[in-house]
Each structure stands twice: as C-alpha cells, then as structure tokens.
Structure prediction request, 259 residues.
Amino acid sequence: MSMNERSHHSKENPKFIDFVGNLRSGQIALGLFEALPEVMFWLKDRQGAIVFANRAYAELLRRLPEDLIGETDATLFAPTMAKTFQEDDESVISTGKSMQNKLEIITRQGGGIEWRMTSKIPLFDEDNQIIGTAGISRRLEHGEGPPLPTPQRAISDLVDYIHDHLDDPISIKELARKVHMSASSLERRFRKYFGTTPKRYLVHARMAAACDRLLNTTLSIGQIAISLGYQEHASFTRAFISVMHMSPREYREYYSSST
Prediction:
C-alpha cells in the first residue's frame, strides 16, 4: 500500500487511503492487471527479481506468469537489452524517482517487434525504504487497429506517413509542414505524446523496420542500411545500437537462433 500512499492522488484523498488499507492483499494486481491483455505489469524486488508479472508480460516471453517468479531481466532478455532494463531499475532505486513514458521497441521471444511506452516507480516499505520497483508498459504498436490513444490521433496521419515512407529521406520541416505546424510545435507535440522528438521517433521507426528485415529477409546489413536511407554502414549501426542496445549483426544472430 505504500506505493499508493506516496502518489499525489492518495495524499489528497484520505478516503482512498482508508479504503485501500482495508483491501485483501493482491486484489488489485492479480485482478485488474490480469484483465489488461495488452498492458504489461510487474513487480520486482530490490535485486531485480520478479515477484509478480501479469499474463501480458508472460505472453510476450511465451511463458506462464508463475514461471517468471524469481527470474530477472538477465535471464529473460538478450544481454544488451537486459542491461538497459536493469539500468533503468537501478536509476529508479538510487534516485527514488519514477521513470515516465519511455518509448521502447521490444523484441518478442522468437522475433517480432512491439512498440511500448514504459513507466517505472520505486516501491517503499513502511519505514520509507525502497524495497523494489513496479513497472507498467502499454503497447503502442503501429498498424494494429488505432495505433494511438484518442488524444494522440491529431497526429496519427503523420505517424502513418512516417511508417509508409521509411525508405525515403524525411525532414522534420517536411513533417511540420504536413500538419501545418512549426518545427518547434511539432516537437512539443511529439514530446507530449511519445516522450521523444520527431527525429528520434523517426529513428525508432526505421530501426523497427530494420529489425523486421534482419529476421525476415536475406538482405545483408549493408543492403538494409541503404534501404532505410543510410548511406554509411557505420551510421546505421550507431542508430541501431542506440535503439536496440545491440548491433544489427548481434540482433540477427541472437533472435534467429532463438527462433
């Protein structure tokens, strides 16, 4: 209950604190979060071991929720991706501050890409000591029904344009003109809805396409780089590592062998 007691809402709502304090332990996590098929939810202890994971989290890894108890990012994900997740957890624990709406591309077990918006918060005990973290990650995948929640649909056409023209040179000025905004207004809109800039979102989109081509085509890494508008192999590799936390070659080898 400490997590709820430290939220802004609960501090201003004594009735909420009393109500939650009388709940049987586990009802919210085991009930509500199990009913969210595309929203991953988990609890970890201070050492990063999972103490609860909902079905959506388990399905990403093709496991059962009960099989994930005691597992860590290091045992569930590719090493470089696990390292990034662990660093985020460690930052939340060391600072006591939450991580809000981080745009991530996650590879499912055996391949396949999911766009996700991830948030993490510290968990406190009754002595105000941090004992772990909680995380929630909602899917924001392009192309599966309405890709964006209602407030974001104002720029959904622009998002579609980006994904439909990944092989073409796209400038931020061009994107801004398409939605009749200044470049600075477009950047504010993207930061509000995606937690990132239009330029960075474009890089994410291209790297997601690169992941698909690495696993589902026989194109060389150089050919994939050129197909996505990168004339220099090194530039493509740097961009890929910045998003996926491993090189294109490592990605292809790791997930091809997993499949």
User: Anything to note?
Assistant: The first strand starts at residue 39 and ends at 45. The chain has two domains: 2-139, 150-258. The beta strands are 39-45, 50-53, 99-107, 113-124, 130-139.
